[in-house]
Design a protein that fits this description.
The chain is of the alpha+beta class. The chain is about 20% helix and about 25% strand. A seven-stranded mixed β-sheet has the order 14-15-16-18-20-19-21. A six-stranded mixed β-sheet has the order 11-10-9-22-23-24. Strands 3, 4, 6, 7 and 8 form a five-stranded antiparallel β-sheet that branches.
């Protein structure tokens, strides 16, 4: 009897120790005053008949049982329950809860909530995809650094009516330690107080971000379709390393795996055993959306300077490149959309512009492969007898841009670049420079004939609306202030019309 009791106590102590180690001590201190569901709820990767539903439990409120239920209803009051799902949480997954809600009706708004014992989460709202929609309306965001300010852009998006989903193009979190890349005066200091390396580090940083009420609000109201960029792992990540990974920080592969695991724990993204984010979404005959992995799937090390080339260098890797090309060749949709992390187009920068230089971390460092893609897009355009139907969505560079994409004097489509949610704009990084003057210089048609719009000053998001023949992009600036005081303003609109090729 004594031995049995001793073993039980040892097991209990071990479990409690594992729970305490999920997050850093600073996060645990914040969770003491929180309820069972402190991180809110989220949904993502919608399909015609399903969606991923997410939450995470407070480890300090964990009871002896591990079963979590999720109710889905067409009514906000849950008068009738359409589906009930259940999930057994695991300490090895950081107590995250992720359910694949299936057998739902297409093109339908649903409400959902999680139940653990006597506790119930906030109610989330999500939507399935229509079998053959005639229009889509979605927001595009990137680069949300907690230390650079409040997430007002998220709050603004949460209030958009009739939104189908949000596309997040990466840099959902930042891996830096406190004050390395941020504004200390705001008192939004990164936790843990170190650069992220271990699974506990990454989990703690996601937990800090997901305790933010503005971020919770957008997830609660709208489904996400997400990919990572580099800061979910380390600055300027490539497959075998990163600019911001040093030998003394341990094994790169262990750090990469920890970052990938944490991302899949915290984002409402469909699970897979290889942590792959390359995937496609089909919206009937209207559009295909291809979400790309331009960091860990096949990217080789970035060139160090302009003009440097490395034999066999690649952004996508052979498998992903072929997947994208073959998928677009088989596509019969009106629009093909790329969820692309880094700048696709080339921009000429005047020599008298301070601070801006061509980044080899963008497609500028992988021009051979970029040009191969242009050739393939051109061939596909001829084969399908339609042009100007490619939309490249880009984040990463903390700027708003609209560029025309052409190849061999034929219009292929556009690249629309979303501004940052908070991460430093040009005027915040180079306060001594006259940003509007820089914008005018970049818009010089002799230098950059494809550049139609540039804004280096404002945070915000892009709203995309498209039907079978037209696509429209509207940029909104959002003042970074405190929650509940969000104000957004339209600053620019671009539109394109798909064209039919009469003569190939």
């Amino acid at each position: 009897m004594r031995n049995t009791l001793f073993i039980f106590l040892l097991i209990s102590l071990n479990v409690n120790s594992q729970i305490e180690q999920i997050y850093c001590s600073e996060i645990n201190d914040q969770l003491k005053s929180k309820g069972v569901f402190p991180f809110g709820v989220a949904s993502g990767d919608p399909t015609e008949h399903g969606v991923v539903l997410w939450t995470a439990l407070n480890p300090l409120k964990l009871q002896s049982f591990r079963l979590v239920r999720c109710q889905v209803s067409e009514q906000a009051n849950f008068k009738e329950i359409a589906r009930t799902y259940q999930y057994e949480v695991e300490i090895s997954r950081g107590l995250s809860v992720k359910m694949n809600a299936s057998n739902l009706s297409q093109d339908k708004q649903y409400f959902y909530r999680f139940i653990y014992g006597e506790d119930t989460s906030n109610v989330g709202k999500t939507k399935t995809i229509g079998t053959n929609p005639d229009h889509l309306k979605f927001a595009v965001v990137s680069c949300s650094n907690y230390e650079w300010g409040y997430f007002n852009a998220y709050e603004s998006i949460a209030n958009i009516p009739d939104l189908d989903f949000v596309v997040h193009l990466g840099d959902y979190i930042y891996e830096y330690g406190p004050g390395v890349y941020g504004d200390k005066s705001l008192n939004r200091v990164h936790l843990p107080a170190k650069e992220l390396v271990t699974i506990q580090d990454y989990r703690s940083r996601y937990a800090q971000y997901r305790l933010d009420e503005q971020l919770q609000k957008v997830h609660q109201n709208t489904a996400f379709i997400s990919v990572w960029d580099d800061h979910e792992i380390a600055n300027d990540t490539y497959t075998e390393g990163a600019q911001n990974h040093q030998e003394e920080e341990g094994d790169w592969n262990e750090r990469k795996l920890a970052a990938q695991q944490a991302y899949f724990e915290w984002l409402p993204i469909t699970d897979n055993t290889k942590y792959e984010i390359q995937r496609a979404f089909t919206f009937g005959s209207l559009a295909n959306l291809y979400m790309l992995d331009e960091r860990l799937k096949g990217r080789t090390k970035q060139p160090t300077q302009e003009g440097e080339t490395t034999e066999g260098s690649s952004m996508l890797g052979d498998n992903q490149f072929n997947w994208l090309v073959n998928s677009m060749n088989q596509s019969e949709t009106a629009w093909n959309i790329l969820g692309n992390q880094v700048l696709f187009s080339s921009i000429t920068i005047p020599p008298d512009v301070a601070g801006i230089k061509k980044s080899m971390d963008t497609w500028q460092g992988y021009l051979k492969e970029r040009n191969q893609l242009f050739d393939e897009f051109y061939k596909t355009s001829n084969t399908k007898k339609q042009a100007n139907n490619l939309i490249v969505l880009t984040g990463d560079i903390h700027s708003s841009l609209a560029l025309k994409l052409e190849h061999k004097n034929k219009p292929l489509g556009v690249e629309w670049v979303a501004p940052s949610v908070t991460s430093a704009n040009y005027n915040e990084r180079y306060s001594s420079c006259k940003t509007k003057s820089v914008e005018r210089k970049l818009r010089n048609k002799t230098l950059n004939p494809a550049l139609d719009f540039v804004n280096l000053r404002h945070h915000g998001y892009v709203l995309i609306e498209l039907n079978t023949s037209h696509a429209k992009s509207t940029w909104f600036k959002v003042k970074v202030t405190k929650p509940g005081k969000t104000k957004s303003k339209k600053i620019h609109t671009e539109s394109i019309q798909k064209t039919i090729i009469l003569n190939g």
